[in-house]
Amino acid sequence: MRKQQVVYTSPLDALIAVTKRLSLYENQYSMDTKEFFNRYSKGQFSDEEHWVEWANDYRHFLGLRLELETRLQDVA
Length: 76
Description:
Number of domains: 1
Order of helices and strands: HHH
Helix content: over 70%
Low-confidence stretches: none
């Protein structure tokens, strides 16, 4: 499968997009992302592509959220 790279104009746009993807995973697998990630981190899921992508999307989400929180603290 060929991956497509998407470039966002802002961290907020990227956060919105990744949040939508996380929501799709949650609906598809009937599981909260935090619960999934905790279980994935403990080795309870295989390294199949869809699990790896979900975990990577969550890591991306956490990074973006931290970046935005830091920017907001700098402004306040």
